[in-house]
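For practice. Supply one:
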Amino acid sequence: MNNNDILRRICYIFDFNESKIVSVCSLADFKVPQDLVSGWLKNKGDPDFQECRDIQLVFFLNGLINDRRGKKEGPLPTPERHINNNIILKKLKIALDLKADDILEILELADLHMSKHELSAFFRKPGHKHYRDCKDPNLLGFLNGVQLKYRDNKYGKQ
C-alpha cells in the first residue's frame, strides 16, 4: 500500500474532508495547503495527483493522535523521516487508544486471525529478535477492521 492509499482509507473511515485533513495536520504543526491535500486524495492517473511523502503522512498521523487524544504538554515528537507499516500501525494504535486485545478484535472483524505474540512482534524495535515486519495484508486487514468498527457501525451497518 502506498501513503496516498493509506491516507484515503483513514479519511474515509473517519469521514474527513480536505479541510479536516488540513486541520489535523496543523495539530502537528504542519501547514499544508488545501490544494496539496486535494492532490493527495486524487487517483494516480489524475493529472492533479500529488504523491503523499512519508514525512507528510507522519505529520498527518501525529496530528490524528493529537486530534483524537489531545495534545501533550511540551514539545511535539520528532517526526520520522521514513515510515513503514509497523510505524503506521503503531500510530493508529495510539490515536485510537487501542490495547492489544482491541487490535486483535479489530483484526477478527476483518477475518485476520493472529495471536497476541504475533501482534506484539509488530510493535518491537527493529533489530529485536522477535521483531516482525507488518506486511501490507496485515495493515490492510487492520484498516478494514477499523472501518467495520468505526465507520460501518456509525452508519448502522454490519
The first helix runs from residue 3 to 13. DSSP finds eight helices and no strands in the chain. The mean pLDDT is 93.
